[in-house]
Amino acid sequence: MPKWLVRLKGERFDLEDFPKLLRSPEVRIVEVDGSFYLESSEFNSLTLAEEVRERGRALIKLINGVTKFNRDNFLGISEDAITRLEDDGKRHNFVFLEGGITIRTKVSGQPTVITADGTEKVATQPSALESLLEVAKKYNVVADALSFYRDDTWSSLYKTYEIIRDDVGGKHQIIKNGWSVDSDISRYTQTTQSRAALGDSARHASKKYKSPAQPMTLLEARALIKTILSRWASSKT
Question: Which of 7, 114, 196, 200 has the lowest tally of Cβ within 10 angstroms?
Answer without folding.
Answer: 200
